[in-house]
């Protein structure tokens, strides 16, 4: 009876000693994709300038809704992507 109880604890996750810890996808990705601080700052600057350029370029094609939507969305995604370049480093290494 005691062995059955131990097996049930292991199956539902109450017995942490018997269950091996699995590495997440993000842990594996972060271990394989390391960037220096200088590379992160370069990525930040490139994403920021291209994002602003695409957003401003979208104002030139304002009256063509498809081109406007594509360039404005791409510019905003690049501008948001710049945050990933810098903030990840400070959140994980502080």
Automatic annotation (TrEMBL):
GO terms for biological process: protein transport; vesicle-mediated transport. GO terms for cellular component: cytoplasm; endomembrane system; membrane. The keyword Zinc does not apply. It holds the Pfam family Got1. Keywords: Membrane, Protein transport, Transmembrane, Transmembrane helix, Transport. It comes from Anisodus acutangulus. This is Vesicle transport protein. It comes from the Eukaryota. May be involved in fusion of retrograde transport vesicles derived from an endocytic compartment with the Golgi complex. Belongs to the SFT2 family.
């Amino acid at each position: 009876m005691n062995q059955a109880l131990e097996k049930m604890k292991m199956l539902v996750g109450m017995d942490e000693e018997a269950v091996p810890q699995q590495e997440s996808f993000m842990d594996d990705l972060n271990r394989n994709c390391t960037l220096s601080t200088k590379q992160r700052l370069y990525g930040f600057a490139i994403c920021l300038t291209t994002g602003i350029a695409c957003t401003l370029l979208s104002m030139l094609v304002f009256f063509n809704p498809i081109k406007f939507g594509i360039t404005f969305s791409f510019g905003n995604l690049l501008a948001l992507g710049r945050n990933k370049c810098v903030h990840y480093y400070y959140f994980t290494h502080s």
